[in-house]
Design goal:
Elements lengths: L13 H4 L7 H11 L3 H12 L6 E2 L4 E2 L4 E2 L14 H18 L4 H8 L8 H9 L11 H7 L7 H4 L12
Antiparallel strand pairs: 1-2, 2-3
Helix pairs in contact: 2-3, 2-4, 4-5
Amino acid sequence: MSMIKSVSLEAEPAKTTFASCREYFPLFEKYGKKHNIPPIFLASFAMQESSCNPHASGDNGGAYGLMQITKDKCGGAPGGDCSSPDYNVMMGAKTFADGLSSSNGNVLVALGAYNGWEKGLTKEKALQAKAQGCCECQQNLDYMQQFLNGWILGLNPYSKRLGMMRNLDSCQ
């Protein structure tokens, strides 16, 4: 990740795109530095996962906070509060850093893993949760497109309608 040149959170268009994350910029900087991850990646996860809402819960109540960390990562949360922004960003950064490490630095594999993708994931398997009654639990098939061609460039992929699958549109 040290070879990646990234957009500053303070530069336009990122400054506007990440306006709802502004109060968390120090956390993205702190944990980005600790794990050698560009802060805009962490802000991008927060926007992609929760629209920078620290009280967001997803995956039918199984994911929490800004970074939508899962219950298995909440063991050390202060007072058991997984949604605490500091703890949540710390664990989100650690999760992505661990994904980078286990994939020998492969950013694409680590990004997919953060979204719950796994080796051998098919479109049918990604959409399975919707068929089982949990539309929001299905994998976002546009995750990589939105993250790489939107958020980390400081662009809002929802306003640009980035992606081709748009499988989560039916959940609204």
